[in-house]
Structures are given as C-alpha cells and as structure tokens.
Amino acid sequence: MAHKAAQWPSEETLLLWKREQARLKARMVDRDTEAWQRDPTFSGLQRVGGVDVSFVNGDSDRACASLVVLSYPELKVVYEDSHMVHLKAPYVSGFLAFREVPFLVELVQRLQEKEPGFMPQVLLVDGNGVLHQRGFGVACHLGVLTDLPCVGVAKKLLQVDGLENNSLHKEKIMLLQAGGDTFPLMGNSGTVLGMALKSHEHSTNPLYVSVGHRVSLEVAVRLTHHCCRFRIPEPIRQADIRSRDYIRRTLGHPGSPAQRQERSQKEQRPKVCPKDGPGAPADQGRPPEDYGRDSSTDLKDPQPGFQEQQKDQQLERTEHHEDSDL
User: Fold this and answer.
1) Best-predicted range by mean pLDDT among 89-98, 207-216, 275-284, 303-312?
2) How much is the pTM?
3) 8 Å CB contact between 70 and 76
4) Residue 2, Cβ neighbours under 10 Å: how many?
5) What is the reported pLDDT for 3?
6) How far apart are CA 114 and CA 112, in angstroms?
7) What are the Cα distances from residue 99, in Å, to 1, 94, 191?
8) Per residue in 263-294, pLDDT tens?
C-alpha cells in the first residue's frame, strides 16, 4: 500500500509546534540529576543508549528508527531494536523532533516493556539539544518525553544566536590538538549553548555537544568523549550501523554478498544479551544523501591510524546539511 508523501506544514501547524516546544521546554532540566554524573569516573554508569533514524535510499519518508544500548565502560552492544517507519511530517529546520522523535519514544517504551533491565541510564542523540533556534532541539525533546538524561551530539555547527562557521570558528578548530580538547560555543546572547569537542586524536572536524535533558554540559562533553572509539560516539555509531543494516536486510538494499558477510563478522549483533554479559549474536539519518554517514564497522581492536582517518574524512564529506538543523 502506497503511503502519501508528507505535506509541508501549514503556518497554523508550525505555530502549534512552536507552542509545544515551549511547553515541553518548561520541563527541561539542564543540570546533573544522577549520582553517577557527579562521580569523576562515572562510577555507577552501566548502560548508555544511542538512537538514530536512517532513510531508505531514494525515499525521504521511509526510514528505519534504531535504539541500541551499550555496556559502559566496555561499549559493547547488549540490546538493539530497529523498526521500519513511515515519517508523516516533512523535514523543517528547527522542528526535526516532530518528524522523528515519536518513533524513538516508541522504541524506548518498547524496551521498557520488554526488557526493563536494559533501560539506558543516558541517551546519546544524533542531533542538537539546547544548541537550537529556540533552545529545544531533538535531544531535549526526546529527553523530556522519555524522562531520560539525554545528550545532543551534532556533526555540524547549527548557526544560531550569532554562531557562524566562519574563519574565526575554523581557527579555533585548528587549535584543537588532542582528543578531548574543547572550546565553548557562546552566542551573541552571552549564553554558552554547547561545546566543540575534538572527539578523537585523528578527527579533523569536531563534534558539537549540547545539553539535552537532566545533564550538565560538562558531564555531557566528558561522557561523549569517553564513548568515542572513533570520531562518532559508539552508541550513535552502532545505532546508525544497525539501522542501515536493517534496511539492507529488510528491503534488500545495496551491499555485495562479500560486504554483507564482512559486516556480519565485524559487527556485534545481539538483540538482547544474557544478564551475565554480552553473549552470542541474535538478532537518526535523515535524507538519502546521508546514507554513507559513519557506516564504518566495529573493529575488534581499533588502533587509531590512517585507515580510520580516511574513513572519518570520507564520512564528513558525505554528511548532509540537515545534520546541522537538528
């Protein structure tokens, strides 16, 4: 059965969306609320979640929503759930949450019902939090609706409140030398909206980390860095890998038999692992142009080097502008 393409929202709908964002924003908490957040080593943190929405190639309204949960600090996948969805709202800059968040909330609710022991203690979201036109991006929206601590992690700078990806911004990026180096993103309002983070020694471009819900900016940045085996935090990277693979397996999308076999060997594929630890395998983001984004496989013993640097640069070239509008 053919689905009707998402229609551009009316002015009345956009006004309702703005009002809903304002209503939910009043419930957002921008400070640490959990004991593990106050511990320098994150003692007590055991499960970190990641979410992503990947599109079917050539179809901007059909996608796969994915939720993964990783053990911490091992960063091994202990739970995954992917589901094909039909997006009913079009992409509108500043309103991505109304297009994608309902499906992500469903995945969290399904996890709570099926396997509550695997509920993540924090979610990393492929998008912005308070670094947003109205200070309430997709990471804030998802956090408030699920009441989970959420961190926004964007790959491109959303140019709001006077923030610009200009020569001065690029000079600051050049000063980021080591993994973990940062600089604040302060808008014309005088508010620090987020941090630019060099997430990996061999990354050329930073990540843009912002508060989503129930977490401070300092903890959000530190946790994001601790979750990076490559440039992209592992929870988001694994959600992206698995959502794209689910599309390939469900719809028969690209990938030679040799490539599929290699992926199956390299990727962890547990649906739910035994409670005593990761066991045997079982069974974000937006436009089709973004299909190749960070689909590098999970290496068993990742050693930073030229290959990963090449992958990182290739992924940065293929990222779509919508990543900056989250």
Assistant:
1) 207-216
2) 0.79
3) yes
4) 4
5) 55
6) 6
7) 21, 11, 28
8) 554 444 555 543 333 333 333 334 333 333 33
Task: Return d(Cα 112, Cα 135) in angstroms, integer.
Answer: 28
Q: How far apart are CA 131 and CA 152, in angstroms?
A: 8
Kindly provide the b/e burial profile for residues 73-103, where b requires at least 16 CB atoms within 10 angstroms of the residue's own CB: eebbbbbbbbbebebebebbebbbbbbbbbb
- Tracing tokens 């992503």 back to the chain, one arrives at 52
| Nearest-angstrom CA–CA distance, 25 and 69 | 26
CA dihedral 278, 282, 283, 286 (to 10 degrees): 30
Q: Given the DSSP bridges, would you call strands 207-213 and 150-154 parallel, antiparallel or unpaired?
A: antiparallel
Rounded CA gap, 316 and 319, in Å? 5
Alpha-helical (H) ranges within the chain are 11-25, 97-114, 138-146, 167-174, 217-226, 234-251, 257-266, 306-318
The more confident residue out of 294 and 58 is: 58
Six-digit token pair at 63?
Answer: 């996608």
Rounded CA separation 129/120 (Å): 18
Q: Which residue has the higher pLDDT, 162 or 269?
A: 162
Tell me, rounded to whole angstroms, the distance of Cα 156 from its chain centroid: 12
∠ Cα 308 315 220 (to 5°): 85
Radius of gyration of the chain from its Cα atoms, rounded to whole angstroms: 19
